[in-house]
Backbone:
């Protein structure tokens, strides 16, 4: 508007050359003064900023090529789209913005009080941009890791070089930083109770409050925590509950010249073997129902066949099948059939079977039913795996056992037992039966070719555990909670331990509870630093995040630490001479906007009320 | 009933009351609807306070906490405006907006986690509070822009009696939106500046072009454009009526940017490198 007024005042008969010069310079001046230019620059900056977050910034050429392909990566590099905020064209935009700001501010400068805000905001942005240039030209930013008790007098800065590779540049410091001590403080571990509802695939954290009945959100289950022990231990004492052999078990000891090297319970129906891979020794405990079976078994070197068992939970059926491949088993009383496809000793291991350790044995099965076929892996050590993972035939629970027992060790000892008390021990070596003798309790038997002896020291016809939860201390160690769940099949209660590996399932296999630690989190990490110059200590401070040390224009920040051993401290070192300029800009900006949008309207209103002359 | 459900319901009832007030247009319904919204705000504030006490730190350490606080600020800023200006219908949508924010909060993980060391700073407190007040104002300007755009085609035919002379009619909501943005913009600026100062203290640099920083700059620039555009549209031969529509549309768009900056950054490929973005677990 002012420019127009000037033009109209011009006399038409001015010398033409001068006039056109004036006009041109006026045009340039007007261009740099216009808000239109301001808005256009800002919009272009917005687009640049968006590009700078959509395209990954500051990566190496290899990373770009891998992500975007060679052509696009090259294009990004040439146009500096890989480094938008430090590119020449972005800098050019900022210079243009600055010019625009300066011109418009000068043009509209009236030196009136009401204009304070306008002038301050516009100048503040210029200050901030100048401060940014100073930082870019004279500032440095890098980092260094210092070990406890050691010192450094340099740090490293990172940059992408012309070849698009990551480069570290060593920068010397005019002093030495010594790390006297590094302290990592952790928060007390916290524990949470997580509920999981399978058919809704929904997980929720429940409150751990003793005595309060709470609903599991989105379901009809009610959970009550009835007891809490901050440091609990589960004592399982083996006991014999009756003389009828319901769950026969023997306690076996391995001795090396009267010293016990290994001992433990073998359960006929459950964990019925012990294996010592190093010694290549295997001990099996086999319970047989009759004399005929025993006769067959003692003369055979066949290994116990692994079996796959299928439970149809809806009908409450359970069936066992021997592990035979490519044979279809019909699940009696149901519409399902099952086929075993393959097995591994260590799931995910690419090596041939004979080289795999028996760490995670699994069988792959195919289930055929009314909705077509489903293939799933069944893990011996994770019998609940299929419950936790979506499957087509959710109501079919498939488990497997004894896969490892399919492998014959060099030395195998079989301890047979019959209901009538008959006990036979068969030693097999290299697939040959070496001896067949009766065995008795408390007697030592030497194992062929080995210095080891074997002794069965106890026999429980009906083995069971007496479970008892005891309190070890009042401090938080391994906390446990006693939980009662009320659901469609009534009330069930159990202890949940925070160190338990698996979920605890409610009887309908739909609700699972896990009581677990949320993990230790870091509370504080601090470094006790000492600054030395010529061997003299000139400054000392314990720094932590949010509280750095400043010396000779360098600011030293606590930025990270050694996550494994916690022995080194990661320091960030920054020097930025532009800070005073930028912070003045920040102050002016804040005051300016508050002035424009709060103080000025307020003053205007007051003026209007007084009916006085309008101040510009 | 849990506090959060109660708050949600009172927001809905307040919204209905505002619509009722719009239909009957009697003076007394004003206090009913405003009273309900103030009640909802108090409940929301109680949630914020309860959460800070339970967590033992200011309630902005994760997305759940920030959203609850954001809803609270939205109600607060609206209530302030209702005391300053006398306008219609805005309250109905403002309480729906606060309700939606709260509803979105219920979808987030609400477990209490210890806060990381960098968040233990007074700058962070000022930073978040000012930002949320700014965002809340932009939310209200979003609402007024919607109403303006909806009412605009019928503006001339409007004949209903005006109850209160000072009442701002929806056809003048373009000016109202400007005032609300002008109220919020200083807060946004303060939020950005205090954020920069905090970053300098905690990470050694006031600005590092982190995605969150960059997007908050984009937000700021979007509203800066809005504040400067009225100066150029008349010069570009855009008539007043068209200009007001363009500006209202720009506010809708800018509020989209606000929300993206707030909760959408996880979708960016650069999010993985950021120290700043709310975790997506
Ligand atoms: C915090 C940021 C800013 C605020 C609060 C602000 C505020 C203002 C205000 C209130 C005016 C009107 C002055 C009057 O009518 O006397 C104005 C004008 C102007 N602003 Fe800004 N501004 C800001 C940033 C910028 C930026 C980044 C640019 C870009 C270069 C810019 C360019 C302009 C221009 C060119 C004018 C002149 C308008 C004219 O000639 O009529 N402003 N600004």
Residues:
């Amino acid at each position: 508007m002012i420019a127009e007024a000037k033009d109209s005042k011009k006399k038409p008969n001015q010398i033409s050359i001068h006039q056109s010069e004036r006009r041109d310079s006026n045009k340039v001046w007007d261009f740099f003064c216009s808000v239109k230019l301001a808005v256009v620059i800002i919009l272009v900056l917005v687009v640049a900023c968006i590009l700078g977050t959509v395209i990954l910034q500051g990566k190496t050429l290899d990373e770009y090529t891998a992500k975007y392909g060679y052509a696009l990566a090259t294009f990004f590099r040439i146009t500096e789209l890989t480094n938008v905020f430090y590119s020449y064209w972005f800098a050019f935009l900022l210079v243009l913005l600055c010019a625009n700001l300066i011109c418009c501010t000068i043009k509209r400068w009236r030196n009136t009080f009401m204009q304070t805000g306008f002038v301050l905001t516009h100048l503040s942005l210029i200050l901030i941009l100048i401060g940014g240039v100073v930082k870019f030209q004279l500032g440095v930013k890098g980092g260094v890791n210092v070990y406890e008790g050691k010192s450094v007098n340099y740090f490293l800065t990172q940059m992408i070089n012309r070849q698009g590779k990551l480069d570290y540049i060593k920068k010397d410091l005019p002093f030495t930083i010594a790390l006297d001590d590094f302290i990592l403080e952790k928060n007390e571990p916290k524990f949470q109770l997580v509920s999981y509802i399978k058919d809704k695939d929904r997980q929720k954290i429940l409150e751990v409050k003793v005595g309060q009945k709470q609903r599991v959100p989105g379901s009809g289950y009610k959970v009550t925590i009835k007891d809490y022990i901050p440091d609990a231990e589960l004592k399982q004492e083996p006991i014999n509950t009756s003389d009828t052999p319901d769950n026969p078990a023997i306690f076996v000891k391995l001795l090396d010249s009267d010293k016990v090297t290994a001992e433990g319970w073998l359960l006929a129906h459950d964990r019925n073997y012990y294996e010592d891979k190093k010694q290549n020794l295997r001990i099996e405990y086999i319970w047989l129902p009759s004399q005929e079976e025993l006769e067959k078994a003692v003369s055979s070197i066949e290994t116990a066949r692994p079996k796959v068992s299928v439970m149809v939970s809806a009908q409450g059926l359970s069936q066992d099948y021997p592990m035979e491949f490519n044979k279809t088993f019909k699940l009696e009383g149901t519409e399902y059939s099952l086929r075993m496809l393959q097995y591994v000793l260590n799931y995910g291991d690419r090596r041939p079977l004979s080289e795999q350790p028996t760490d995670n044995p699994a069988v792959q099965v195919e289930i055929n039913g009314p909705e077509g076929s489903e293939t799933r892996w069944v893990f011996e050590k994770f019998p609940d795996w299929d419950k936790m993972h979506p499957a087509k035939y959710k109501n079919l629970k498939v488990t497997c056992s004894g896969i490892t027992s399919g492998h014959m060790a060099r030395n195998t000892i079989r301890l047979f037992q019959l209901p009538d008390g008959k006990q036979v021990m068969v030693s097999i070596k290299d697939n040959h039966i070496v001896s067949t003798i009766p065995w008795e309790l408390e007697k030592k038997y030497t194992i062929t070719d080995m210095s080891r002896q074997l002794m069965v020291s106890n026999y429980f016809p009906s083995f069971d555990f007496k479970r008892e939860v005891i309190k070890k201390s009042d401090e938080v160690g391994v906390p446990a909670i006693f939980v009662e769940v009320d659901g469609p099949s009534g009330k069930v209660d159990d202890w949940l331990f925070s160190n338990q590996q698996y979920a605890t399932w409610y009887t309908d296999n739909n609700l699972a509870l896990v009581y677990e630690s949320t993990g230790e989190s870091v509370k504080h990490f601090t470094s006790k630093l000492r600054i030395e110059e010529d061997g003299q200590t000139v400054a000392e401070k314990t720094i932590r995040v949010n509280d750095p040390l400043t010396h000779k224009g360098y600011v030293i920040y606590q930025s990270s630490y050694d996550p494994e051993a916690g022995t080194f401290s990661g320091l960030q070192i920054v020097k930025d001479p532009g800070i005073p300029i930028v912070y003045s800009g920040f102050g002016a900006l804040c005051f300016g906007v508050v002035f424009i949008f709060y103080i000025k309207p307020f003053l205007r209103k007051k003026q209007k009320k007084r009916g006085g002359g309008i101040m510009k | 009933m849990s506090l959060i459900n109660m708050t949600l319901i009172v927001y809905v009832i307040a919204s209905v009351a505002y619509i009722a007030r719009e239909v009957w247009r009697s003076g007394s319904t004003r206090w009913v609807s405003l009273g309900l919204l103030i009640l909802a705000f108090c409940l929301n504030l109680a949630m914020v306070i309860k959460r800070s006490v339970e967590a033992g730190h200011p309630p902005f350490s994760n997305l759940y906490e920030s959203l609850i606080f954001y809803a609270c600020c939205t109600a607060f800023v609206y209530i302030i405006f209702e005391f300053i200006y006398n306008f219609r219908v805005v309250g109905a949508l403002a309480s729906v907006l606060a309700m939606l924010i709260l509803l979105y909060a219920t979808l987030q993980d609400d477990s209490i986690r210890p806060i990381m060391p960098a968040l233990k700073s007074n700058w962070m407190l000022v930073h978040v509070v000012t930002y949320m007040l700014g965002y809340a104002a932009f939310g209200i300007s979003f609402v007024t822009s919607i109403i303006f755009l909806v009412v605009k085609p019928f503006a001339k035919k409007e004949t209903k009696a005006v109850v209160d002379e000072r009442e701002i009619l929806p056809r003048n909501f373009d000016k109202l939106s400007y005032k609300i943005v002008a109220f919020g913009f200083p807060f946004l600026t303060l939020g950005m500046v205090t954020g920069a100062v905090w970053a300098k203290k905690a990470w050694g640099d006031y600005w590092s072009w982190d995605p969150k920083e960059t997007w908050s700059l984009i937000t700021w620039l979007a509203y800066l454009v809005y504040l400067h555009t009225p100066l150029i549209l008349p010069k570009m031969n855009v008539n007043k009526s068209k200009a007001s529509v363009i500006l209202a549309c720009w506010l809708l768009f800018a509020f989209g940017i606000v929300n993206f900056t707030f909760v959408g950054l996880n979708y960016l490929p650069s999010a993985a490198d950021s120290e700043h973005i709310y975790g997506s677990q």
Notes: The mean pLDDT of chain A is 83. Chain A touches chain B through 54 residues (CB under 8 Å).
